[in-house]
Amino acid sequence: MSAERYEKLEAIAAKSVSIAELFKVEPERMKRFVLREGPLRADFSKQSISEHAREQLLHLARDCQLDDWRARFFAGDKINTSEDRAVLHMALRGVGGDKAVQKQVKDMRKKLREFATEIRKAGKFKSIVHVGIGGSDLGPRLVADGLAAAGSAALELRFAENVDGASINDALEGLDPKTTLVIVVSKSFTTQETRMNAEAARDWLEAKLGKKAGASFIAVTANRSGAEDFGVASDQIFDFWDWVGGRYSVWSAVGLSLQIAYGPDAFDSFLDGAAAMDMHFRDQPLENNLPVMMAMTGVWNRNVLGYSSVAVIPYSRRIRKLSAFLQQLEMESNGKSKTRLGKDTGLTCPIIWGDEGTNGQHAFFQWLHQGTPGAPVDFVAVLKDHEARPSHHNALLANCFAQSEALMIGKPEHVVREELKSEGRPDAEIDQLAPQKTFSGNRPSTTITLDELTPFALGHLIALYEHKVFVQGVIWGVNSFDQWGVQLGKVLAGAILREFEGDQGRHDPSTEALIKMVTVKS
Ligand code: F6P
User: Fold this and answer.
1) pTM metric for this prediction
2) Cβ neighbours for 419, distance < 8 A, ≥ 6 positions apart
């Protein structure tokens, strides 16, 4: 069924006119391809998808039983089959899950609110060092910057993630152990980087505070006994649950640092924004559904047009870590080559990359405009100026809108030739230069705008991408909620580390030579 559908989509793509032409032949295009929910508007009209292609993409989603999967997801079925777990990060925002789950969430939210309020009120701590990596780091980091648009942090918030000693050294640099709260976040509490940084932070606290250091050391984990074995006092541990994937966990106790720094009200509003997107995703028909439209646009670009990457360019410094966050969210979720049933997939998750606008314009945009094959772009902009610099903000937005227009309309060779001629250039030079100065255009993009960068809107945006990933996982037939691909490297790193300390091991000649450079020196 799906194979036939893909053939149809390919046939449509082969006959398609350019994006610019689609605007001329489809008078309803803006109506069909622009969707809004609350403060978020997404304009898919600059994608090279005709109305007919859009209908076929929605049929593909139905062929893949997206409706059923969505219902199972919200009902708390164990859709993470390889780990035999439900997937219920929406329940953290108050949507979905059974009564028991809702109670767990409610109790935890109350506990977190009370704790954050108390810390803010007491005023003893001036800074937080948040220790964690991957999902225990990227979400909090992105959201910390984003929340700063609406209000400044009550405490300084620093992060230590990498096992490179520079990470924890930089995080602790210049801080006073007496006024620093260390929050160690690890779902598994087994992650090497986090444990080593947590040990370093604890040593640093103990050197100054001695036995009292424990009161400045918090753990957030789904492995309470692991944290206790590590030496964290039981009443200093905040739980979350195995039905919260690491990369979907910023909504849980993982966001404790954010609640303390920016206040529980801002955090609640962030959760409410995500909940509103959850309900939109759950209740809207596929054709009006933002995450579905976004996901199917990605499927078109990947599986029909063959693009191997997507650039995400936030035109807002406050969400500049969006592309790094989405790299984990999308690539760890859907970077798979076997289906849930262990069969080969077709093409799945593209590479996600990007940097903030306008910086990227002075770096890799050359490739986006003229490179082979280029990449579809998600432009993300905020309409309101939060910096009291209206002229800067207008320039930022003008750049954002200009880039998507330029990618679409390009600059035809005959126009370039005329320009060169009017400059009086000789024909031979025009023949050489014109092709180089031509822009092919017809390069697809989506523009997402937030009315303002409120905590609510930020929650909306992140939940939109989360559900996009879910939909694409359904279409590609993969389990979006496991990550077996990260295991092998972790095991080999453990073995090599033991060899640095004297163990014997066998490797290929290249790896052996690398290991020797360390063992011979030490
Ligand atoms: O290495 C991948 C990973 O398992 C991610 O999925 C996760 O977000 C990260 O490591 C950190 O894991 P933990 O929160 O258990 O320390």
Assistant:
1) 0.97
2) none
